[in-house]
């Protein structure tokens, strides 16, 4: 008796609403830029802005795959550990074979395989995603430390290092990669039927299944893609840092989740965009960069990130309640 | 006529808890593989080392029974351990250190509970956020450095004995008994079962689920404060990454101990056995000269296996 | 506690004393539906008052008003002749009204005693603790008083359904309940357990407890009831004594609903080829040995009481539940997979709960309309917003969905328009067999007519339909044939000329 015709409230439209959300976030990013320009001398310099862009790109690579997972209503806590193991194994391959191409393929392959395992746990074993990927985090963590045995890998071929630290036409290479993957991610989410199905699954998994969407197969795909993107990110980190250590990805998970949530992707699934995640990564990087320029101790970074995560979820709950 | 309860598990073998089987198996395997395992000093060592974990796993059991989770425990433990060290160093008073640690722990627990119960943020994200906050605060208060030069009393908490029994074991057993009493013999404990098992029933009985939830998380914070004291005493210093990831061992112990992640079916004795199982696993692998990274990975596998089994049980 | 020991005598002295509890002229309206319309109802101590009516006749609304879950719009309550107010569950509890719902309010991992006294535990010596001895003794006393001999320290999870029900009743009695409301208490019980429950009811009657008993089983209506009230369309049709009527009389009172019968329906001269054939279908959800056939151009009804297994049958056909035995042939082809296979073959399920199972409420009308047709519209996998909006807007026009735009969130539409979106989604997918589960639930009259016109057009165009409905009048009016279910099995099949509300109700009732 309770689902009797709910009154229709005005002509509020959902999609434009989503665009407004992204617009607000872009505005916030501009305001932070403006504030930092006024507050510091060093923010508005080419060097610093390129630095911010490069940092944001690195964060975006990890967060973009994660966005798809969050869109389905899941979470992947293993991405940081996945970056670490992919980087270390890819580094070994490059050292041993001297082939960067093989290294890149290995990194993406390892990352994708880990993601697929996550997908199997979530779909076939039906373990809740946050706890399954949390278990995976520690499994990977252990394997990586065991594999590296406390060693650090140094010295990769110069050509390979260009991926992370090179410039082309005055812009860092990662920024070009960012543009490429922003385009691919957006096309995948907005312009393919699989992307549409992913939104549908996140919005209501039961209805999605009863609408004929092969939910388990799509979830498997999404977790695999998320893992593969972590693998790709690991390559760029490797090239940027020119070294591989077991703890390379440890502090990346929380910022990646923060970027996704700041970007307006709902923790409860079905709402959000890959572009939003880019803006989220940009905002977080700007905040952390600004703190750095304002000589705030780097120790404050995890604290601020934690607060931001909670605020973003709170905001998400406020906005989402209106629609559902 | 006398009504008989339907006994679901008719096979007596099925009624032996899985965690006990696993513990015995591990002990047998390690005894066979390393001569040093089955010795009084080693067993005592395992138990002493397990007390900190127990202090996290006990409240974690309660939190998981309410269909919650606390990922911030390890980071908050690091923070409270540092607080104990800093206050003890500054004032020379162990008691003041403990009080400060308890206060910080309770504040974090209350924030977690408030975020979960009042704001309504899913527990794993809320506590992931506070994890970051506690981690940041640890770096800030310690400036990234170890806090050393503890008064002698600090070390005494870990190395001391009471009637021949190591003090940590006394504290651990005390905590276990206190939680046992709390869960099985008080109204509070009764309502925790209802929080996970049937929240509707609680509402009909006129009990506020929100307040209870906040209390459960706050209690967790208090225990983390107490564990902070032991942690500092064990290392005789405060270290800015000391407790990181320990929440995972706690979750592992609870999961292995048979507490269900759905339906509010908690078993405190199972958690105790789970803690010892994790301790034995780590100790045995250590004696086999396997690096600690392998220990971490095997605990991860242990959790996934336990959750899989739990999922199978809840579906059948 | 001993007054009015002989229950049958209670009815005769009725006129002398006021009833223990009485409702007068209760009305309750929801937007678009009158759930209760001027209903009066009373119980005396030591009496079992039967409440009878079809699905949706207003029994559960009445119950919810009684226990304070709903607030009545009009009418008054009287306790022992005095006017009282029931505005909340607490008010109802104070008056001694307790409802034994079908879904139990017990905590599985607490023991019987803890459940009986949840929130009212006797305090132990240490503050906050529970006096274990006292709680067990108190529980034992309550259990003894209802003749339930069991150890109160046993956990609820170890009990069967019947035993849990006993504990619920004990809990109600321990709260000094004088008025017990039971909602189909024997639905999940075996014969032996039913006997035990009846013995308990006799005992409660002897103690002067008033019992309001909702049932679908004719046998118990006659054997237990002191009075019978029949509801229909939210109205009290009559109050009768069991000796004065036959079961046929009761069925006649329950049916004959005043439903608008102007739905158009063009029956085909002769049905087409077999579209769906189900042989011996069983599933873990409790259905067994289901045989049915649906032909092209037909609307086939699937009736029976709520809980008789109708939804489970269509879920198994669609692949949402796994079949444990039997065969499903669709268009001559055997199907055994999940919902994705069903959708690909051309089956469509319009589930009972639009919000929970049919729609992604936060997504737009357009997104919802094309979700099942993605593969059909975009075979190469590339999604085109313009094309998708065109398809969606065509459907919005064709189905006359009232929405400001295809971008409106579907959760903001009215029930009727939401239902059109669910149907539209399968039209876009080009489905050939439509399975409707209560397609008109929660929809106003005008929208209902539109939905039926739509279904009629679908089958006229060569599709087939299988329709679950609790509204027998609708089934009789629009269906070519109907199957009636009872207890997870098909109890009978009625051809068009045999279809009548009385036949459906009779076939669907338990006669055991």
UniProtKB/TrEMBL annotation, chain A:
GO terms for cellular component: plasma membrane. InterPro entries: ABC_transp_permease. One of its GO terms (molecular function) is transmembrane transporter activity. Its main location: membrane. It is found in: Cell membrane. The keyword Transport applies. Signal peptide: none annotated. Pfam families: BPD_transp_2. Keywords: Cell inner membrane, Cell membrane, Membrane, Transmembrane, Transmembrane helix, Transport. It is a multi-pass membrane protein. This is ABC transporter permease.
């Amino acid at each position: 008796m309770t689902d009797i015709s709910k009154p229709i409230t005005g002509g509020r439209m959902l999609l434009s609403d989503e665009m407004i959300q992204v617009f607000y976030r872009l505005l916030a990013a501009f305001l932070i830029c403006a504030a930092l320009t006024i507050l510091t001398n060093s923010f508005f310099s080419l060097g610093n802005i390129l630095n911010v862009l490069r940092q944001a790109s690195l964060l975006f690579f990890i967060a973009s795959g994660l966005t798809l997972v969050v869109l389905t209503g899941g979470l992947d806590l293993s991405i940081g550990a996945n970056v670490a193991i992919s980087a270390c194994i890819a580094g070994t391959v490059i050292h041993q074979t001297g082939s960067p191409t093989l290294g890149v393929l290995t990194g993406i392959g390892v990352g994708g395989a880990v993601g697929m395992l996550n997908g199997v746990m979530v779909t076939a074993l039906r373990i809740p995603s946050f706890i399954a990927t949390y278990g995976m985090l520690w499994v990977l963590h252990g394997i990586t430390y065991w594999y590296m045995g406390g060693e650090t890998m140094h010295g990769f071929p110069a050509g390979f290092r260009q991926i992370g630290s090179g410039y082309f036409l005055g812009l860092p290479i990662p920024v070009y990669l960012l543009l490429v993957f922003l385009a691919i991610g957006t096309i995948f989410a907005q312009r393919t039927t699989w992307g549409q199905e992913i939104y549908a699954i996140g919005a209501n998994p039961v209805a999605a299944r009863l609408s004929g969407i092969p939910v388990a197969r799509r979830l498997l795909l999404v977790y695999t893609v998320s893992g593969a993107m972590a693998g790709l990110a690991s390559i760029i980190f490797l090239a940027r840092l020119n070294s591989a250590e077991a703890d390379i990805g440890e502090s990346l998970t929380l910022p990646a989740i923060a970027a996704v949530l700041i970007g307006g992707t709902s923790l409860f699934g079905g709402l959000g965009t890959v572009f939003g995640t880019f803006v989220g990564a940009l905002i977080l990087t700007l905040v952390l960069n600004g703190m750095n320029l304002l000589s705030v101790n780097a120790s404050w970074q995890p604290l601020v990130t934690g607060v931001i995560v909670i605020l973003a979820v709170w905001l998400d709950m406020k906005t989402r309640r209106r629609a559902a | 006529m006398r009504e008989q309860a339907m006994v679901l598990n008719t096979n007596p073998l099925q009624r032996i808890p899985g965690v006990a089987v696993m513990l015995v198996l591990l002990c047998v395997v390690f005894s066979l593989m390393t001569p040093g395992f089955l010795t009084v000093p080693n067993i005592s060592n395992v138990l002493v080392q397990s007390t900190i974990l127990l202090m996290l796993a006990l409240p974690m059991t309660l939190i998981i029974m309410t269909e919650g989770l606390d990922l911030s425990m390890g980071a908050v433990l690091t923070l409270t351990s540092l607080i104990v060290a800093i206050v003890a160093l500054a004032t020379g008073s162990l008691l003041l250190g403990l009080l400060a640690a308890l206060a910080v722990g309770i504040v974090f627990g209350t924030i977690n509970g408030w975020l979960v119960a009042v704001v309504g943020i899913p527990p794993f994200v809320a506590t992931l956020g506070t994890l970051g906050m506690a981690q940041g605060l640890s770096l800030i208060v310690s400036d990234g450095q170890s806090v050393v030069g503890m008064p002698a009393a600090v070390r005494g908490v870990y190395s001391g004995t009471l009637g021949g029994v190591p003090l940590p074991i006394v504290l651990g057993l005390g905590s276990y008994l206190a939680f046992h009493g709390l869960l099985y013999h008080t109204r509070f404990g009764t309502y925790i079962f209802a929080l996970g098992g049937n929240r509707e029933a609680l509402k009909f009985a006129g009990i506020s689920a929100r307040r209870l939830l906040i209390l459960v998380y706050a209690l967790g914070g208090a225990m983390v404060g107490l564990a902070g004291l032991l942690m500092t005493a064990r290392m005789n210093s405060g270290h800015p990454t000391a407790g990181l990831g320990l929440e995972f061992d706690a979750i592992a112990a609870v999961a292995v101990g048979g507490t269900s992640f759905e339906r509010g079916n908690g078993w405190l004795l199972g958690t105790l056995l789970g803690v010892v199982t994790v301790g034995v696993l780590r100790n045995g692998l250590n004696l086999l000269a396997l690096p600690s990274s392998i220990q971490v990975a095997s605990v991860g596998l242990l959790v996934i296996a336990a959750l899989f089994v739990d999922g199978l049980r809840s579906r059948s | 506690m001993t007054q009015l020991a002989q229950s049958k005598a209670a009815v005769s002295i009725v006129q002398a004393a006021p009833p223990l509890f009485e409702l007068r002229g209760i009305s309750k309206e929801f937007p678009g539906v009158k759930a209760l319309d001027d209903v009066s109802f009373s119980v005396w101590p030591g009496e079992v008052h039967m409440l009878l009516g079809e699905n949706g006749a207003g029994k559960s609304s009445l119950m919810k008003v009684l226990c304070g879950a709903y607030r009545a719009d009009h009418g008054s309550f009287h306790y022992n002749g005095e006017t009282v107010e029931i505005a909340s569950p607490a008010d109802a509890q104070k008056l001694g009204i307790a409802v034994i719902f079908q879904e139990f309010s017990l905590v599985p991992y607490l023991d019987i005693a803890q459940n009986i006294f949840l929130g009212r535990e006797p305090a132990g010596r240490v503050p906050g603790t529970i006096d274990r001895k006292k709680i067990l003794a108190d529980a034992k006393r309550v259990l003894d008083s209802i003749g339930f001999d069991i150890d109160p320290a046993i956990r609820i999870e170890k009990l069967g359904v019947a035993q849990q029900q006993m504990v619920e009743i004990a809990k109600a009695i321990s709260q000094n309940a004088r008025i017990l409301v039971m909602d189909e208490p024997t639905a999940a019980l075996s014969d032996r357990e039913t006997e035990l429950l009846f013995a308990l009811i006799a005992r409660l009657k002897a103690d002067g407890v008033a019992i309001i008993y909702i049932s679908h089983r004719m046998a118990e209506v006659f054997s237990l009831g002191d009075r019978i009230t029949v509801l229909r369309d939210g109205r009290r049709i009559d109050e009768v004594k069991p000796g004065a009527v036959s079961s046929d009389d009761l069925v006649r009172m329950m049916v004959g609903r005043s439903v608008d019968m102007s739905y158009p329906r063009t029956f085909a001269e002769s049905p087409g080829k077999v579209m769906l054939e189900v042989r011996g279908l069983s599933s873990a959800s409790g259905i067994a040995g289901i045989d049915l056939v649906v032909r092209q151009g037909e609307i086939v009804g699937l009736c029976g009481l709520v809980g008789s297994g109708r939804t489970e049958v269509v879920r198994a056909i669609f692949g949402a539940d796994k079949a444990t035995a039997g065969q499903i042939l669709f268009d001559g082809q055997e199907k055994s997979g999940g919902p994705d296979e069903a959708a690909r073959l051309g089956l469509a399920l319009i589930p009972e709960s639009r919000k929970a199972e049919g729609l992604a409420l936060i997504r737009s009308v357009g997104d919802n309309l094309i979700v099942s047709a993605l593969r059909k519209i975009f075979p190469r996998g590339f999604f085109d917003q313009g094309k998708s909006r065109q398809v969606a807007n065509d459907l919005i026009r064709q189905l006359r969905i009232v929405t400001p735009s295809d971008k409106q969130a579907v959760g903001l539409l009215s029930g009727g328009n939401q239902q059109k979106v669910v149907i539209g989604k399968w039209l876009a997918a080009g489905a050939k067999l439509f399975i409707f589960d209560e397609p008109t639930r929660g929809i106003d009259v005008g929208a209902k007519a539109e939905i039926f016109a739509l279904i009629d057009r679908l089958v006229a165009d060569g599709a087939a339909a299988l329709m679950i409905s609790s509204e027998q009048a609708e089934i009789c009016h629009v269906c070519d044939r109907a199957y009636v279910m009872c207890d997870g099995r098909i109890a009978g099949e009625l051809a068009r000329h045999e279809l009548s509300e009385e036949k459906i109700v009779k076939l669907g009732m338990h006669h055991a």
